[in-house]
Hints:
The structure holds two protein chains of two kinds. By secondary structure, chain A is mainly beta. Chain A has no helices and eleven strands. In chain B, the strands form two sheets. In chain B, strands 2, 4, 5, 6, 9, 10 and 11 form a seven-stranded mixed sheet that branches. A four-stranded antiparallel sheet of chain B has the order 1-3-8-7, with no helix packed on it. The N and C termini of chain B lie far apart (37 Å). The interface between A and B is medium-sized, with 24 and 30 residues.
Amino acid sequence: QQQVKQSPQSLIVQKGGISIINCAYENTAFDYFPWYQQFPGKGPALLIAIRPDVSEKKEGRFTISFNKSAKQFSLHIMDSQPGDSATYFCAAREGYNTDKLIFGTGTRLQVFP
Amino acid sequence: GAGVSQTPSNKVTEKGKYVELRCDPISGHTALYWYRQSLGQGPEFLIYFQGTGAADDSGLPNDRFFAVRPEGSVSTLKIQRTERGDSAVYLCASSLNSLVAGGENEQFFGPGTRLTVL
């Protein structure tokens, strides 16, 4: 049962463009939403994370937008660069009494010069 | 400083055999997590430790899987009677403190152990 739905599966963006990846969830107990970046052969690395009491968080070129009522959140990568080409995963913590993260299925981003 | 290290990087075994996968977390990190990742999928939670104790083992698929962290540092994931469906990359992560324990839960991942069961 997929508890965090991620789209698109793959994304091709021109250098300098905006990359947008979307995630949706059903479980209202989820209370922490991180995004991870993974390069081939490496483990995922935390990019940015948000809690549901905030609607937007920005760190450099990366922004999370969070819509609690719609149970959706998205990652925006501004001024996308070829070095951003990687697989991106959204995730959600299952609740306040555990650190268990549920991951989405991933989005493979390719940024062309 | 050193990141999370996992050994071996690759493990090939035969169906029915027993395997142990080791994780060395970042020094001082109290929380340690195990995930497995199949090709083209996101990491799937298995278990996490806060200190020496398993805080949540709800992701272990069955009783063939077991993990320990006896001294609150290194952890070993043990798989008995391996099956072909166990083939995946097993990822370990650590964080300074778990969210539940009041930390920020930035989980730092190791490079993983690729397990292949023939």
